[in-house]
Amino acid sequence: MQRMKVAVVQVCGGENIEHNLARACEIVREARADGAELICLPENVGFVRITEKRNFGETLDGRVVTTFANLAREIGAAILIGSVQQLSDEAHRVYNTSILLDPDGKIVGKYEKLHLFDIDIPGQVTHQESANVKPGDKAVTAEWKGTCFGMTICYDLRFPELYRLLLDQGAEVLLIPAAFTLQTGKDHWEVLLRARAIENQCYVIAPGQWGHHGGTRHSYGHSMIIDPWGHVIARCSDGEGFAAAWLDPAKLVSVRRNLPCASHRKF
Question: For the domain that residue 151 is a member of, what is the CATH number?
Answer without folding.
Answer: 3.60.110.10
